[in-house]
TrEMBL record:
Organism listed in the record: Mucochytrium quahogii
Domain Carrier: 1-59
Transmembrane segments: 91-112, 124-149
UniProt cross-references to PROSITE patterns, sorted A to Z: CARRIER
Any matching Pfam family: PP-binding
Protein name, UniProt field: Carrier domain-containing protein
Keyword Transmembrane included in the entry's annotation: yes
Alphabetical keyword list: Membrane, Transmembrane, Transmembrane helix
InterPro entries in the cross-refs: ACP-like_sf, PP-bd_ACP, Trimer_LpxA-like_sf
Keyword Nucleotidyltransferase belongs to the record: no
Amino acid sequence: SPGSISRDGDFFNTYGGNSFLAIEVLSCMRERLGIDISVRAFYSDPTVAACALQQQKCTEEKALDIPLAPVDVSVLGDLKTNPVQVAMFKVFGLFVVYGIVGIALLPTFAVIRGFGYGIESRMFIVNGLILLLALVLFMLTLPFVVWAVKMLLIGKRQSSRTIAACSWTHFRIWVVDRLWDMIAGGIAETFGGTTLLPIIYRGFGARIGKNVFLDDTVLRNPELVEIGDGTIVERGAVLETFVEFPSGSIMLDGVKVGSRCIIEPNTVLGLGCKI
């Protein structure tokens, strides 16, 4: 019985095995356990412990024979990129981003100056209404400015590709991504679950069919997303279209969801996913 077999027991001397049984045991080990031990090795030391050591040795030898895969730049990014150069590139990009936000603030400043916000002779509620009007105007102006910058820098459509760090294309995509990130979350939370959210995403380049329900879905790159008619995307679902590598390079790829699909809460659809 299995319980009576010792790890150091000899197959021939201890358990009375013979050549025919040895062949049968080795065949069973190959077929059922995937353990490939030669007949000569088994005869030289016919114990369970020796079989285990022999199998471990064969496994290690096979592992050493496996060639290492070449580095794929499209997966890992350009590993030769200077991190200091990438950091300086992004700092410069932030100046551009906040400069564009400053342009979006111009109508707000015009309202504050035109209505004379802060005049002490006015009632507090009047100054409060002026400030509220200015904030609402900024919230309406910024999305239009982001849309205009997006159309100017990258257009309404993008293709699946890998962009090298610190290139002109990288700069354009990175600036638009930072600007879009400022408003995308607020748009999704405000208009999620309504018919307005698909309309807004269509304006930014998404191809969304009829009767599509989007809960609080944030599309990082709407121009790379396609959703068919009657599809439901529930709360917390992620449609991943943008990956930035540690080297600074960027990979873009589309996500396509067919008609009448249901994407359940917290589901993640990776780059290039098609359902």
